[in-house]
Every structure is written in C-alpha cells, then in structure tokens.
Design goal:
The structure holds 2 protein chains of 2 kinds. Chain A is an alpha+beta fold. Chain A contains 33 helices and 20 strands. In chain A, the strands form 6 sheets. In chain A, strands 2, 4, 5, 7, 11, 13 and 17 form a 7-stranded antiparallel sheet that branches. Chain A has a 5-stranded antiparallel sheet with strand order 3-6-14-9-10. In chain A, strands 1-18 form a two-stranded antiparallel ribbon. Chain B folds into 3 domains: about 1-40; about 70-235 and about 300-490, 3-Layer(aba) Sandwich (Alkaline Phosphatase, subunit A); about 240-295. Chain B is built from 12 helices and 17 strands. By secondary structure, chain B is an alpha/beta fold. The chains are: A alpha+beta, B alpha/beta.
C-alpha cells in the first residue's frame, strides 16, 4: 500500500477518538488480547511478532518491518496490516476473524500516533488510595465504601434503596458472618434495642462468635482444596482435620492476613516454629496423592509441586499461572521459565507422594496440649541436629577404606560385581524379587580390627537420577557374620548402632538393626546415600576369615515396585572413635533426650497432619524447566528460585527460599495480595466480586466494576486495618451499601441484574454448608460443639460406596454428633456429600476459586426428601406442635419466623393455616403413622417441610 | 436432517440466541453471564445458555448423525488381545522372553525386567460379511459383527487407571475438567423436560476409582453434571417422598409453597424466586418420570430373556436395558461403567482364564440384546453406542514383584487398545487401524483419545474446535491443545 493511500485511509477514519485520551491498559490491551495475541502472544509468536512485551512491539518482525514506530502510524507495520484491503496482507487474517472495527482501528492508530505509550495491566500496579468522590447525599454514607458506591449511583442517576428492616438485616448479616440464622431471642433483642449503635453491637457479637471461624473456614477450605481423603487412585482417608481446626481458630483469633499467609506457605521455615505453625503448612500438603498400584511416586510428587505453584497464584494473586507451565503466558507478561523459577521455591520439600503421607507431625487431639507436644518435638529436633553434627564430623574425619574384593551372593535376586572408583560394587542383574537378600562378603586388606562399616547405595545412572530419580529401596534388616577360614559355622557379629545420612529421618534408621522399615533411599534414589553400622566391639578377623554383611531388602510398594537396592558398595575403618561413640557421653545424652521425648509424646492422645518440611541441604533437588510442561523432559536448570520479573523483587540480601516467597506475597509491595482477599470478602458478602472473575485478575479477567473502591479498600486493609479480616468484614457489613433492602425496585431487575451497581442490598442463596446448618438450626437440632474429628451425618442409602475401606457410620438420632455443623462433615473427594454437591459445593480436587450458584430441581428434591432434611422437617413440626401457644395460628407464625426470621404477613398465615387444616383433615381420614403419630403431628411435619422449602428459607 | 428441517433448526437457533440475550438480564443469568465470559469482552462460550432453562434442547452447531450416546465403559481395561485383536504371531511367541525392542524406553505399571510373551488365551474366528475377528468369549456380540465399527489402534498417554479414565471421560488426565456427557448436555440440552440429560449407571460392585469426577461438570455449570442412578434406594437420589408422604400430600404442600413463594416474589421482585418455583414443579414431575423410566419390572418376559435381566438387582444387564429405556425417553448421554476388568493375573478374579471369562459372560448377552433392541425400535440410527476401556493390555505376561504370577494376566498398555462403536453415523461392519504383529502398539492409523472425542462430537453435530468455553484465560475444549483430527475413515 502506498503511503499516500494509507494516509488517506487514516484521515478517513471516524474522529471518535479524541486526542490524548488513549490509555494502553484500558483501551489498547483489550483489543490486542481479543484480536491479536492468539497468534502474536505468549504462546505463539507468528512472524516473530508478539504484543505482550513492549520491546517486542517496538522491534521488527520476521519481515524486517518495524511492528510499531511510536508517533508514526504510517511507518508501523501493525497499522498497515490492520488497514490493508489485500486478503493476503490484512490482519487479523480473514480465516481467523473479521476486520477490526473502525473504532478499534482508530484506537490503535491514535495510540501509535501518541507515541505508543506502554502501561501495565491495572492489577500489576500497586494500588493507591483514592479521593472520595463528591456525592449527592453525604448523609447516607456511613463509611468510604458508601461514598464510592453512591458516587457511581449518582453518575448512573440511581438512588440507593432504603435500609432493610431489622429482621431481614439480622438474618442477612448472621448468615453472612457466622453461617447460621438468628435465633428468635437474638431477633427479639435486636428489634427491642433502641440504642443508636444497636446494629454495630450485633456485628461485634457475631464477629466474636466461635461460629465466625467455622463459616469462613468453609470459604478458605475451597481454596485450600481441603478434603479428608487423598484424591486420585484409591482416595483413602487422610488425617488433616487439625488443619481445618487451625483455620477456624485463625479466623476466630483474627490472625492478621499477612501472618495467616506466611504460616500456611512457610510456617515450617519460621524461626523455632510452634506446632500450630507446622499445622498451618498442611495447606500445601492437601494436594492429591496417588496410591493406585503401579503409579510413579515422582510423577505425583511433581504434580503436587506444580499444584502448589498454581494454587498459590490462584489463591493469593488471582492469577492463572497454570498456563505458564507449558508455555509463556498467552496474555500477560510472564515467561515460561519464570514459572519454574517460582516452582523452585516449592521443589525442595521432603514429601514425595509416599504411601504413608510423610512427613507428618503428630498433633494432640486436645488443643490445650499443642504447646506441650510442640515443645517435645522441638526438643527432639534439637537433639537430632546435635547428634547429626557429632556423627557427621566423625564420618568426615574418618579414613574409609573402600572394599575392593567383594564377593556377592543374591537370594532371590542375581548379583554381579563391577570394579569402579577403587571399589568392587555389587549390582543386581535382570529382575529383582521383592524382599530379596544381598550377601556381601570380603576379606579386609589388613588385620586391624574393624570399628565401623559404611554402606553406600547409588543410583544406576547417577547423572540421569539427578534429573529424574530412580526407584529406591530400604533395608528391612542388616546382619553381619564372620565366615571362619576353616569353613566352620559362621559367627554372628553384634551390631550396636546404625547411623544414617539424614538429620531428621522419616523412619528410625535403627529399625534396620532390629528388623522393620529403617534406613534407605525410600522410595526414590537420586544420589549417593550412605549409612554407617557400628559393631558392639571391633571386629577381629583371623587370617583367611571373611566378614559377611547381609542386606535384607524391603518389600513391594504400590503393588508394583520392589524396594530392592540395585547398586552399592562398602567401606570400612579401624578408627577407634566409632567404638567410643557408643558410650560417648553427649551422644548418649542426646539419644536419651530423644527417647524420653518420644515416650512422652506417645502418651499424649494424638492425630497427625501432613506438613511441609524442607529437604536437608545434602539432599536438595535440582529444578529444571519442563519442556512444554512435560516432567520427563527436563530443560534448563534453575539455579535460584525467584518471582516473575513483572512483580516487585524479593528484598536484596534475602535468601530465596519458600519463606522469602511467602513474605513477598504477604507484603504491602505486592500489588495483588490485598486486592484479591478484599475482593474475596466482597464476593462472599455481596454475591459478586468487585472483580467479578475473582479467580482471574489478569488482563483476560473481567475489569473491576469499582476500581477506585477496590484499590482504596485494599490499601486501607493493609495500613488502617493492619490486615485484620474481622476489621475488613466489619467495614463491609456496617456500610450503608450492605444495609440496603434487597427489594428490587421496578425496572432494576432489567437494569442491573446481578446487582453490581449495588442500588439495593445483596440477596444470596444459602451456600451448601449453610443450607444444611440452617435447617438444623431452625429445627433446634444443631450441635454447636466446635473442633474435632470429621463427622458423618445421615447420608441417603447407596451413596457411600468407597473404592477401599472407609466406612460411614452415622450416629443414631438424638446423638448430638449427628447434628454437627457442615464444616465438620467428612469430605471425600471421590464421593461428595450429596447435599453439598447438589448445592454447588466443589469436590475440592483442586483449588476452587468461586462457586457458581445454580437453581435446579435436584436441590428441590434434596430439601423435600433427603432423609436429613426430612428429620429436620419432622423435628420442626413437632416443635411447632408442642409450643405452649394456644392457637394453630400462633404456632404456625412462630414456626415461620424461626425459619425465615420474618414476622408472618396475614396473607401468608392464611395460606399456612389453610394447608395445615387440609392436611390435618386428610391425615384424619387416612391416618399414616409413618407420617406422624397423630394427624396433627403429621400435618405439622408437612407444613414444616413447606417452611424449609420456602424461597425465603433458601436465601439470606 | 432434510433441508427444511435444517432451516427450521437454524431459525430456532437464532431465536434461542435472542431469547438468551433478552432473558439473561434476569436472575442467575446475570451471574452466569460473567462465567460465560461475555462480560470480559474476551471470548464467548460456544453455547449461550439461559440459566433459567439450562437444559432446553438446542439444535447442534452443524448437521448431526447422532442424537444421543450410550457409552459402555469396561472399567479396568479389558484385554483387546483376548477379545478383538487377533495376533497369530503372538501365539507363536507365547512363553518366550519378550524381545528387547518392546521394553526399551517404555514405562510399565507392574512389569519388571524381562517378562514372557503371552499368546491369545482363547480361540478366534471371523464373523459376518465383514469378517471381523472375535474370540470365543463374546459369541453373542460376534453375531453383530456387521453392525460394529472397530478401532484397533486406540492410544492414550496414561497408564494408570485413575488418570487414564479421566482422560477418556474429560479429555484431561487431571481432575476438574468437564466430562464428555457434560459437554454434550451443555451443547444440546435434554429432549425430556422431566429427566436429567446425562445419566450414569454403574455395575460390577464398585464405582470407578476417581468416582464422580468421571461425570462431573468441571468448569461448566454444575447442572450439566451426570446424575448417578443407583441400584439401592431411590433410582435417583431423593426422588421418593419421605415415609408417609403420599403424592397427594406432596401436591398440597407444593401448592401452598407455590402460593407463598409467589407472595415473596411480589414483595421482593427477585426473578430467582420464579425460577425456584418452576424448579419445584419440575422436581414434582421428575418424581414420577424417573422411577417410571427406571422401573424395568414391567418389561415383557421376552425382553428380560433377551437381556438376561433380573429386576431389582444391580447388574450390567439391567443397566443395558435401562440404557435403552433412557435413550427412548430422550436422555442425551447415557454412561455405563462396569467395574472389574483389570486382569493382572495377581489372583483368580484378575485372571484372564477365570475372572475375565466371567466378566465376558456378564456383558456378552446384554450388549448383544441392547444392539438388537435399539435396532428393532429404530433407535440405532440416531444413537451412538460406544464400547471401550481406558487403555489396552500388554502382549507380555505380567511379572509383578519380579516373579512370574500364578495366574495369567497382562499389564497396562497405553500403546494400543480396541474401541468399537455402533449406530449413528459410523461405518457398520468396519475395522479401522492395524496394530503391530503382537498387538503391542498401533502400526497403522493410530487414533488418540482426543481424536475419538473429536469424532464423537462431529457425529453429534459439533466442531470440536468450536465447542469452547472460556476458563482461566483460555478457550477450553474437550480435545485440549494438542493436534486433533476427526477420524473421517470411520464415518458412514
């Protein structure tokens, strides 16, 4: 196209864009994302052109033409292409989509003309406080939220709704804050309270209630993918409920959100962590594990690590980081290798999809004993470190003599020897049989007594194993005998101690001496591993005699993999210090300390939780980029974990570990953390987030509806509220905005269907947990006991068919355990509790950021017929029947108020009385004891069911 | 579809879209709007759904051969080498050590070191005009040889059950993605207002190991998840009234509920209340329609004889008959899972000579009856029947723990397995693809799970590239991001 023609075309554009108005993030990026980045983005860079990074946009494409020349649209290839009439030239290509609209072309052209100024997406820029807008009715505003909301309503020429009546308001705020409806007494007290701060007093009461933590723990458990089972494969039960209790307590104690964050992501790396801080790290051990036969532990370890990365970004940063696993981010400036730099923060933990779920910590069932157990565990940790220090330095100072004349006999497995690095190694050949034994005999080079034997195990291919570890092994038993030169009976050697190469081993290494799962590279081996065996007395061999060490291997794990050592070697020493170690005072003292503390711990009734634990320095892994996201295809090595360059840096001088990463997230410098949590609370309380896509704050998400409000609140949350979630909740629910009536003014259903302008108060359906807790509460059945083991409420017949074990025993009617709050219900990923699933609860296989609310006939069938709801109906019916009130009218009115929190209207009462009379007459004519002992009881039961099914009962 | 019908469908589609755009401004529609990606100004989902009538039947995007699907999944992965993929060469190698080239670079679930080859365990014969091979374990099905379209070269990249089953049913080995039935129900809705559009039937004594995730709706709205029909208790959860509550009592209660909720709607004006009222009405209808369709006791004796059904008992045969009844009633997607096909040879039940033989007996007659029955009712022409496992089995005998098993079994093999289809839109009496001489991997025309998905969607009237839903910044598809093709070679 000739420059003149291009110029003419540009001049012909409609003048809809005024000069100097283009904002890159607001105006340009959305067009690029919608129309260009599919081919010219982070995934594909067709023609070497990408619109994600400024330097690429200002560079040249494959054609050699500059993509964008700031200030000069005519010289910019991008503008030429979008204007072109030539089907071979025009962009987007005709087969990919229609021409850009005149408006879009105008915006892009004007942008280039104005110098192609770049701007980051709003969410990547640190939030700032905003001036409050001038509003039409300052008296209406109770706090800054209201000023922003009213400012917007003013601009839309809308007026806020009047305040909701007290009954409606107390119901809404009770269910929102504590997940339970108000009792009649609470309603009466609030309605009778004439003080000006009557509402605020209710808020203080609710925020101080232990039920607050239960309600908000449920919200966080979706994000944490909390379940009482492992997921995939066998989906066996997994003890993790102490973490749920930790969440409840944290919300109730109003743990500041920055601290709440750091403890969950890296509580184990805090200085002298408490037991509760270790329990907090269960958050990232709630990943699925796979114990299905034949599954590779490393594959599922890796997949857990990636899940931790993705979940961290989704929960705290509202970013879809998962797509960067395979390629650079399609829309946002995050590079492929940056994903793995971040993954490196998580790649150094000890868990490895082991069947035992290790590492775990044991946690006293009684919360009052947490500190006691925590101190005992800290004592053990300290003593283990001291011992490790003693053993390590002794091992280092010892002159080990490689055994280079090994003779091998395999029992169950064929062994061979290979001479390498001065050793004669043993190796297995062909198939290895589970639980086989390796008999290793040798004659020492000289006659000095042997004081210790060092057993070294190696991967078959050491360099490959550093990238992807091999199946490992463990020693079920170690024995040693002397084979006399004359062929007489072997003489046993007493082995006194076994010292492993780990500071804090998952299994007691000494179990290998007694028989059991002890020392070994379990379940994978990625480098040389060693242990030292110390005989009770130095071993003296007569000339010609041999020492024979027998390694008894472990059995099969995951129905498939024999834990058999495939390669190893021995070394010996005559250093007398090893024998002395057996009685060395400090070592003995540390061992006694450990044993003492262990015995005391054993005496405390406890459960366990899986926790995060950093690998010891000697065992740290290498992290590599996975080429196209494939874990078996390792690319460049990542030397230092880091955060993406787009974001503020980790402070200079800080060690780049998981704790630094956690602090980076929980920092006021992080542009996303505060916005994302503020938005989440907003979403829960108002039904829709200020950013509607609470899970996506990236440039492909929905733009915030009130950006200034979100930013202002985010800044205040960090500074003024000091990260207090209760303070945040209080700010939201005490706003005039929240307190509005939910009645929809004429025309507003069409004008603002999802109530984003907030010209009325929120009216939300109860969550899955609330719907059950609500029915239990209004029927008087609920048990408000807090904390403890998961509960198993009634479940319809035929639902509970777990793949293995895991029985469901429901406590009998009348037992309070049957009526515990829903947050305590046993949560199995493969068999969701049916009521929760029907009411839109996720299965919590992965982090779920938002529940999409549905309205289905299956929900109706649940509340009408589910045995648990039926029990509530009948109980509520009998409660109404037995009220001391004299008339049916009074009884029904009272029942209605229990369920809906509202005072009944005459028209409704008429309906209820009519249906009661009809049912009473019908049951009198055709009595059915299954419906109720008397016609009256039956009729009350059915009317109670009507009440529980009311639209008013299902909403808050 | 005739040209006239096509025009009519087109018009309906435009109407539907207008209807959606008008009505989506109320109630949940608004909330769904964002989840449907409209508000972002980014991508739109392929199907725009009215949240107040989410299962309304919609015409497909293109001409469709199939209106509904019956998918028979043999959970655990049956041995193709002992049923369909006849390998004389493997017979010759029986008992010999496995050649090295089969082992290099391969990952196995259970095989270790050098295993022995295991020949076909049963006699094979050719059947029908098409001359398809069947072992003597499926004599009844073999009579339908000329109806079946067999793909011998199915491949997957997962070799553990959980992930492989997820891949078959959601296109992804991880949890959390919509199942096939959800995509299809989302796309087409239900032809019966009184029944769920996606029903799941289970036999074999166990649910598949990843459970409800195999029929979950993933990021699609939860109304598109499969509804599990149960063998104990209500056929669908909570369909029956509580004890002592008759249908008349329930009607009276619902009438009162309806009038009370209408008063609430008058006062508050929330459109959600109206939706709720209509959902209660549908629930009331479902209470009759579901038990009715699930009650096989009134089927005539010759039908019971043909299927081998016994009312009231959990069995694959009962589920096959139910599948026919559901298809007849207009259910869009009918998913059967039959557990117990994981024949490793680690015990008698897992032995090809024992447990496997019994499993074959369990399915042979019912599947044969289902095909006959669908055909005689004219349903086979627009119903797609699919039979498959989640992967294949190895031509080597399993040697778990490094030793030879006492019983005869085969390990997991992602490299080749047989899937067959019958009915709407596929070539009858046709075999597609060839495996290598021992049936270990696809030698000619390999078909990936995602290719099968694309083909199934094609038959239902969808372009797999265009059936998209925006989620996590991407236009998500059932077939994912890897290159995918419709297997045109099997289309009738």
């Amino acid at each position: 196209m000739s420059p003149t023609r291009l110029l003419l075309l540009l001049l012909a554009l409609p003048p809809m864009i005024a000069r100097g108005e283009i904002d890159f993030a607001r105006d340009v990026r959305p067009i690029l994302n919608a129309k260009c980045t599919a081919c010219h983005g982070g995934v594909k860079e067709a023609g070497e052109v990408s619109f994600i990074y400024r330097d690429k946009v200002l560079g040249k494409g494959e054609s050699g033409q500059p993509v964008v020349v700031p200030g000069n649209p005519e010289a910019s290839e991008m503008i030429k292409r979008i204007l072109s009439q030539d089907p071979d030239e025009v962009m987007p290509k005709p087969e990919h989509g229609p021409r850009l609209s005149d408006k879009e072309i105008g915006i892009l052209t004007q942008w280039v003309k104005e110098g192609a100024k770049w701007g980051e997406h709003w969410a990547f820029v640190k939030p700032e406080r905003h001036t409050l807008p001038k509003v039409s009715n300052p008296a209406w505003c109770r706090n800054p939220i209201d000023q922003f909301i009213l400012g917007r309503l003013d601009s839309e020429k809308l007026k806020p709704s009047p305040e909701a009546d007290r009954a409606a308001l107390l119901r809404r705020v009770s269910l929102d804050l504590v997940g339970l409806p108000p009792t009649l007494e609470e309603l009466d007290a609030y309605i009778a309270d004439t003080s000006p701060d009557a509402y605020e007093k209710q808020i203080d009461r609710l925020l101080a209630s232990p039920a607050f933590g239960e309600r908000w723990a449920s919200v966080w458990m979706d994000l944490a993918r909390y379940a009482d089972s492992e997921g995939l494969g066998l989906d066996r039960a997994r003890d993790s409920w102490k973490f749920r209790d930790w969440l409840i307590d944290s919300f109730n104690q109003d743990k500041p959100f920055d601290q709440f964050t750091i403890e969950q992501l890296a509580g184990d790396l805090l200085p002298n962590p408490t037991l509760d801080q270790l329990v907090a790290t269960t958050f990232h051990r709630l990943t699925q594990s796979n114990e299905e036969g034949g599954t590779d532990d490393e594959e599922f370890r890796v997949s857990a690590v990636l899940d931790r990365v993705n979940t961290t970004w989704e929960v705290w940063q509202g970013q879809t980081f998962g797509c960067v696993q395979c390629h650079s981010h399609p829309y946002d400036p995050i590079q492929h290798d940056e994903y793995y730099k971040f993954a490196a923060f998580f790649n150094q933990t000890r868990d490895a999809d082991l069947s035992e779920g290790l590492p775990t910590v044991s946690v006293p069932v009684d919360p009052a004993r947490h500190n006691e157990a925590g101190n005992l565990q800290a004592t053990i940790t300290k003593a283990e470190s001291a011992l490790y220090e003693i053993h390590g330095s002794l091992n280092k100072s010892t002159t080990w003599k490689p055994v280079n004349n090994l003779e091998t006999t395999g029992k169950g497995t064929v062994l061979k020897t290979v001479d390498q690095d001065g050793y004669r190694e043993f190796r297995t050949t062909g198939n290895v049989a589970s639980s086989s034994q390796h008999l290793l005999a040798f004659q020492p080079a000289d006659s000095t007594p042997l004081t210790a034997i060092r057993i070294e195990l190696l991967p078959l291919d050491e360099s490959a194993a550093r990238l992807t570890p091999e199946w490992g092994s463990f020693l079920r038993k170690i024995d040693a005998v002397i084979l006399p030169a004359d062929g007489s009976k072997p003489r046993p050697v007493m082995l006194s101690r076994l010292i492993g190469d780990e500071e804090h081993p998952l299994f007691d290494p000494e179990a290998s001496l007694k028989g059991g799962q002890g020392w070994g590279p379990y379940s994978k081996i990625d480098r040389l591993r060693w242990c030292v065996v110390i005989p009770q007395e130095p071993i003296v061999l007569e000339p010609g005699a041999k020492l024979q060490v027998t390694l008894s291997n472990g059995g099969t794990i995951i129905s498939s993999f024999p834990m058999v050592t495939k390669r190893g070697r021995l070394a010996v020493t005559s250093d007398p210090t090893w024998t002395a170690l057996l009685t060395q005072q400090d070592a003995v003292a540390h061992r006694n300390t450990i044993n003492d503390a262990r015995n005391k711990l054993k005496a405390i009734p406890s459960t366990t939780v899986p926790v995060m634990r950093e690998l010891e320095p000697a065992a740290r892994r290498e992290t590599h980029v996975f080429v196209r996201g494939n874990w078996l295809n390792k690319g460049d090595r990542i030397d230092t974990p880091d955060v993406p360059a787009l974001f503020p840096k980790i402070p200079a001088g800080a060690k780049h570990d998981r704790l630094a990463m956690a602090k980076w997230i929980a920092s006021s410098e992080n542009p996303l953390t505060a916005r994302v949590i503020v938005n989440r609370f907003w979403l829960e309380l108002f039904g829709t987030g200020i950013v509607e896509t609470a899970e996506d704050f990236g440039s492909s998400g929905v733009k915030p509806y009130h950006p200034e409000l979100l930013d202002d609140l985010a800044v205040r949350f960090q500074s003024e509220f000091k990260w207090s979630l209760k303070r945040l909740a209080r700010e939201l629910v005490t706003s005039a905005t929240y307190r509005q009536s939910a009645v929809i003014a004429p025309g507003m259903a069409e004008r603002d269907q999802s109530n984003r302008l907030l010209a009325r108060g929120p009216r939300q359906r109860l969550t899955a947990e609330m719907s059950r807790d609500h029915a239990l509460t209004v029927s008087g059945l609920i048990s408000l006991k807090t904390h403890g083991m998961p509960t198993r409420p009634p479940i319809p017949a035929g639902v509970w068919t777990p793949f293995v074990g895991d029985p469901w025993k429901t406590p009998a009617p009348g037992d309070p355990e049957r009526y515990r709050r829903s947050v305590y219900t046993y949560w199995k990923r493969s068999i969701p509790y049916p009521t929760f699933a029907t009411f839109d609860a996720p299965t919590r296989e992965m982090c779920s950021k938002r529940r999409l609310v549905s309205n289905t006939p299956l929900q109706a069938l649940t509340v009408l017929n589910d045995p648990a709801f039926d029990e509530c109906s009948r109980t509520l019916g009998s409660l109404m029947e037995k009220l001391p009130a004299t008339t049916i009218e009074e009884k029904l009115s009272s029942g209605y108020r229990r369920v809906t929190s509202r005072t009944i209207t005459p028209a409704r009462l008429k309906e209820l009385v009519a249906v009661y009379r009809k049912l009473e007459a019908d049951f009198t004519q055709a009595p059915d004891p299954k419906a109720g002992e008397t016609p009256q009881a039956a009729a009350f039961g059915v009317v109670a069911s009507v009440l529980l099914n009311l639209d008013e009962a299902m909403v808050r | 579809m005739t040209f006239q019908e096509h025009i009519k469908a087109e018009r309906l589609r435009h109407l539907t879209r207008r209807h959606f755009l008008r009505d989506c401004t109320t109630g949940l529609g608004g909330i769904w709007l964002a989840s449907q990606g409209l508000a972002s100004g980014m991508s739109k989902p392929a199907i725009l759904r009215d949240a107040n009538d989410p299962l309304m039947a919609l015409p497909p995007q293109a001409l469709a051969k199939a209106k509904r699907v019956i998918f028979l999944h043999m959970v655990g992965a049956p041995s193709q080498l002992d049923l369909f993929d006849y390998k004389p060469e493997l017979k010759r190698l029986d008992g010999k050590e496995c050649p090295k080239e089969f082992l290099e670079g391969k990952r196995f679930a259970f095989i270790q070191g050098v295993p022995k080859m295991l020949g076909p365990q049963f006699e094979f014969k050719q059947y029908g005009k098409s001359g398809a091979w069947f072992s003597d374990r499926l004599p009844n099905l073999a009579k339908h040889a000329d109806k079946l379209c067999l793909i011998k070269t199915m491949q997957t990249d997962q070799f553990n059950h959980g992930p492989a089953e997820l891949l078959v049913h959601t296109g992804n080995q991880n949890l959390g993605y919509p199942s096939l039935g959800s995509w299809v129900t989302w796309g087409l809705g239900s032809d019966n207002n009184n029944l769920p559009g996606f029903m799941v039937l289970i036999s074999g004594g166990r649910i598949p190991r990843v459970g409800a995730s195999l029929w979950g709706s993933g990021f699609l709205p939860s109304v598109y998840q499969g509804v599990q029909c149960r063998s104990a208790g209500d056929p669908v959860l909570n369909a029956a009234n509580p004890p002592g509550i008759s249908r008349d009592v329930r009607r009276a209660a619902l009438d009162a509920l309806d009038r009370l909720d209408r008063q609430t709607h008058q006062e508050i004006g929330d459109p959600e209340t109206l939706t709720r009222i209509s959902q209660y009405e549908m629930a009331f209808r479902m209470q009759v329609s579901v038990p009715e369709v699930m009650d096989i006791s009134k089927e005539p004796a010759h039908i019971h004889e043909m299927y081998g059904t016994k009312p009231g008992k959990e069995s694959f045969a009962n589920n096959c008959l139910l599948a026919r009844r559901l298809a007849e009633a207009g259910t869009r997607y009918i998913q059967l899972f039959d557990w117990g096909w994981d024949t490793h040879g680690s015990n008698a039940v897992e032995s090809i000579k024992d447990g496997f033989v019994k499993k074959c007996e369990d399915i042979d007659k019912p599947i044969s009856a289902l095909l006959t029955d669908l055909e005689q009712r004219g349903l086979l022409e627009d119903t797609l029947v699919v039979w498959s496992g989640e992967f294949g089995r190895t031509p080597m005998q399993e040697n778990r723990g490094g030793t030879t098993n006492k019983f005869v079994g085969r390990d997991h093999n992602p490299g080749a397995f047989t899937l067959w289809m019958a009915g709407a839109g596929v070539k009858p009496g046709f075999t597609y693809g060839e495996t290598d001489p021992v049936g270990y991997s696809a030698a000619k025309d390999p078909v990936q799970i995602r290719d099968f998905h694309a083909t199934m969607l094609h038959l239902l009237g969808f372009d797999h590239k265009k059936l998209t839903f925006p989620f996590q910044g991407l236009d998500q598809k059932l077939t994912g991001v890897k290159p995918t093709k419709v297997v045109t070679g099997i289309l009738a």
